[in-house]
Design goal:
The chain is an alpha+beta fold. The protein folds into 4 domains: 7-131, Arc Repressor Mutant, subunit A (Orthogonal Bundle), CATH 1.10.10; 133-316 and 436-450, Rossmann fold; 326-414 and 451-501 and 512-519, Serine Threonine Protein Phosphatase 5, Tetratricopeptide repeat (Alpha Horseshoe); 611-720. 57% of the residues lie in helices and 9% in strands. Strands 9, 10, 11, 12, 13, 14 and 15 form a 7-stranded mixed sheet that branches. Strand 16 (570-571) and strand 17 (574-575) form a beta hairpin. It is globular and about 75 Å long.
Amino acid sequence: MAADRGCFRFGDYLLDPEEARLLRSGAPVHLEPKALQVLGVLAASPGHLVAKRELLDAVWPETFVTENALTRSVARLRGALGDDPHEPRYIETVPTVGYRFVAAVEVVEPGATPGKSGPAPLLERQAENRGSAAPGARAFGAVLGLLLLALAALGAWRLALAPEAPPADPVTPGRPMIVVLPFENLGPPEDAYFASGMTEEITTRLAAVAAIGVISRKSADLYAGSDKTIRQIGEELGVDYVLGGSVRWDRGTGARQRVRISPQLIRVADDNYLWADSYDRMLDDVFAVQTEIAREVLRQLGVAVLDPVDAAALAPPTRNMDAYNAYLRGLARFAPPFPTEEEIALAAEMFARATELDPEFALAWAWLSTARSMLHWLYGPSEEQVRRAEEAAERALELDPELPQARAALAVYHLYGRRDYARAAEEAEAALKVLPNDDAIIGGLGVIRRRQGRFAEALTLLERAFELNPRSARYALFLGWSHAAERRYDAADRWYDRSISLAPDQGRAYRDRARNYWLWRGDTEAARAALQTMPVQGGPESTGTWFFQELYERDYEAASERLAGTPGELVGHRPKALLEGWALDLLGESEKAIASYERARQALERSLAESPADADLHNAFTHSRLSLALAGLGRAEAAVREGQRGAELLPISEDAFSGPYIVLDQALIDTMVGRHDAALERLEYLLSIPAGRQISVPLLELDPRWDPLRSHRRYRRIVEQPAVDGH
């Protein structure tokens, strides 16, 4: 049913779209205009599925916004309506597709009121409320209700982690959203890290309170020195309040060191200052100032610190200011969206220094563990780094068994150090109970769920992380990967584009967007255009993508020449010699190809000999690539054996995100050694599961390495069957 005019009545509610007003039993329900517009579109078609794209076009016409804006509006509607996403009375989520309004709707004339007996007029009800409750009691009741809503939403989200459960909306309904912008450093430039640290600490204290939503520091940092207005920032980040200010550190000598912090809290809706103050204290009092600022902000937002966990989060992390100084320097090194190996190593040094100056500094131990786990994962397997990461996390927990950052560090350790995803998820969930606004923990849990094959939950968690860190090119990239895995290539393309717009100087999103065009439509022309816009050309990663672009264009000579002009032995994570072998084989230069495969074999066997025995992920890919080199050399039995060894180290049942790469390599090995039935069986399997980042029918048709299979009847059946998204 649709209506051109009039109001919509459902349950105790009356929606007047023309007046942008929602009433419950005659009393107004406060909602932002966009949320009311979403409700109007849904209520106009009760019982019918309304696609996300239709909602976005109707509510945000000619404006680029992500699905996150819609998700947040729906979550706020649910909060206002008291709706449960798992047992909806009003709004039902159809995962990945859209929403359906499930309540009965009646179109009535403007001025009608819901309810059988007719409520008291609005002004009379307000007068009754003013006379029946003292302001303090009303405020306490509002705060208590807000906290109960937050706890209920958190419980609902945890229930959604069961495999069969539909994904929960990523926003806790009803929470005020705030961003802490980088505090301006009024001292010398070398003190910038100190002002940054003050911003981080105040953000962390606020983020520990479940009753509010706090935007990540990494998104907030992008507005340092910005000339955008408060309203522009609020709209871009989706926040209701902005906290900013300045910091001046007067070093002096010894006990005479002083810090002046001047915070300002602004409401976005009317650009009004709600509160401003100036704190001029001795340096040793800086933790008390951070806590006072956090408490005052919460008071201004109408949120009382009722939970002892929240109160504990406001406690100072150390009394040793030199240790704290080193810790702040470490955080500053860890700040970039894509920190380099050097930056992470320097951060680890600073955290280690902090623990030397104060061996009981639990928070520094936790961050030291995380830095060491990341060094192991990103820059080469190291059993020593893994062991020391575990020791640091355990030390943090020994010092403070309730420290959520220690639980988060253990989650990172189990995720990247041991690939124990069940244990990593357990630790991440424990950390989230105390730090419900930590986008890194939420996003990390999303990564874990994705590797566990729980793709719908992973997507929900990553969307939630992106809402808290909406300027994160990294989360946008992760969301693109998640959609691509389930072969929703159009959605993946939008997220890759979003990642590029947020960080134009990166390379990864350009390469992934090009690969997405291969997978989506077999479109080498669009892929080439994407690659040509990359800001940095000629590195090992870009060379690898360009190699496959030319391979898929069947310009094997260009692909071979590109490799010849690239220094080093690796292209991406593959031996350059292996890629050379493929190009030379396709050029018909068999002898040269064999020489390249032999060089690749020798390099890969050396890598296995030098790698730690328990570095399963690294070794799985090394065995797999070795099997491809052996297949090129015609050593079929050895090739199949090495491919199987890689699959045993990284089975899809244990890693649903990376495991398909190994099975795809096995299919290519089978093709190269003439085991065509086995190759087709593996390809058919991969096309039936969420392996959309590895293979699709368009890419299968595009890649010349599958040419030996094309005359088989089974191959034609595979590529001619209708494509199904969301496998």
